[in-house]
Specification:
binds nicotinamide-adenine-dinucleotide; 3-stranded mixed sheet; single chain; globular; Rossmann fold; 7-stranded parallel sheet; 12 strands; 360 residues
Length: 360
């Protein structure tokens, strides 16, 4: 793999995609083309530090549009694709599954076909080096039911939510395009990410921002559901290790060995806020008093936990953050970057977008 690739990244205006692009522009000499539709979850303000870099380009494109993708491949001539664009929020997938089927399944299919047509006509040397890296979730494996087991790369798929079912479908399509057409694909399945620039509907930023505003901290059910948390910048480093060094056809699980019950995550956030923001909102004696248990999410998986031994052994990747150090950095980031999340909360991040139709 050359040290100066052009990498087409879908979903680069999202939480993980923007961390990946910041990582690549900061730490490597590669070029990046960010292909993103800019749904509510896409925020170009997360890419402020790279937008003026000549190695970065942005294309506002829907991955369900074959003709738009063909134009992007023809114009940019990428050496690799890293596919992160997706509808990603489980609760939204329960209320409205259509967009998940459309983007995660049909969009991945459309991208695979556009990539295959492009790859087949590449000169043979570049064709051999081409990579299609599909970024997926550990939720495709379903539920560990509180047992001591971990998800490995050979755990059978058993998705529970419309979100995880749509991601499982997309994984199957990518594997089939590799087996059937020889497309040089790699898949990674990662555990829950957290860190800076996380959209405030997700658990950790929601709790931080609600606590700062003196609002209730809603915890599903009894809060005993266990998630395995990974700091987003550790995920970005793992993805970079995979796209540059992994063998074609492989699957890697990525996780931080940081299993936490949801209620403990919320309590840890409260403790960090007690330390960092002792001046609490009016009427709040302790942040923990704001915790309020709400009806559980339907189909809620009890436990996810990843065995990341393969990527550690094959590629030497290890997370740099513990949950404690990563959570501390995350809370600090939300305290120091109020402008970023205020503009998300009041919707103004959507008003200054490039192109038309961003508000539709
Ligand atoms: P996100 O919701 O923050 O970002 C998704 C991005 O995709 C947004 O910028 C959005 O505008 C874009 N997008 C959505 N539909 C599109 C379409 N039709 N065409 C083009 N762009 C479109 O998501 P995220 O948390 O950054 O997750 C990125 C990927 O990683 C997803 O594939 C997700 O399934 C996977 N993943 C996420 C986690 C996690 O904890 N967040 C864990 C494992 C895997």
């Amino acid at each position: 793999i050359s040290s100066k690739m052009k990498i087409l990244i879908t979903g680069g205006a999202g939480f993980i995609g923007s961390a990946l692009i910041r990582h690549i522009i900061r730490h490597t000499e590669h070029r990046v083309v960010n292909v993103d539709k800019l749904t509510y979850a896409g925020n170009l303000e997360s890419l402020a530090e790279v937008e003026a870099d000549p190695r970065y380009a942005f294309e506002q494109v829907d991955i369900c549009s074959r003709s738009a993708l063909e134009r992007v491949f023809a114009v940019h001539q990428p050496d690799a694709v890293m596919h992160l664009a997706a509808e990603s929020h489980v609760d939204r997938s329960i209320d409205g599954p259509a967009a998940f089927v459309e983007t995660n399944i049909v969009g991945t299919y459309t991208l695979l076909e556009a990539a295959r047509a492009y790859w087949q006509q590449m000169p043979s040397e570049r064709r051999t080096a081409f990579r299609f890296h599909h970024i997926s979730t550990d939720e495709v494996y379903g539920d560990l039911h509180g047992s001591g087991a971990l998800f490995t790369e050979t755990t059978p798929y058993a998705p529970s939510s419309p979100y995880s079912a749509s991601k499982a479908s997309s994984d199957h399509l990518v594997r089939a395009w590799h087996r059937t057409y020889g497309l040089p694909a790699i898949i990674t399945n990662c555990s829950n990410n957290y860190g800076p620039y996380h959209f405030p509907e997700k658990l950790i930023p929601l709790m931080i921002l609600n606590a700062l505003a003196g609002k209730p901290l809603p915890v599903y059910g009894d809060g005993r559901q266990i998630r395995d948390w990974l700091f987003v910048e550790d995920h970005a480093r793992a993805l970079y290790a995979v796209i540059t060094r992994a063998r074609v056809g492989e699957t890697y699980n990525i996780g931080g060995h940081n299993e936490q019950a949801n209620i403990d995550v919320v309590r840890s956030i409260c403790r960090l806020l007690e330390e960092m923001v002792p001046d609490k909102p009016a009427g709040v004696a302790n942040y923990e008093d704001l915790i309020s248990f709400v009806a559980d999410r339907p189909g809620h998986d009890v436990r996810y936990a990843i065995d990341a031994a393969k990527i550690q052994n094959d590629l030497g990747w290890r997370p740099q953050e513990t949950f404690e150090s990563g959570l501390r950095k995350t809370v600090r980031w939300y305290l120091d970057n109020r402008e970023w999340w205020r503009r998300v909360l009041d919707g103004s991040y959507r008003l200054e977008r490039l192109g038309q139709g961003a508000l539709s």
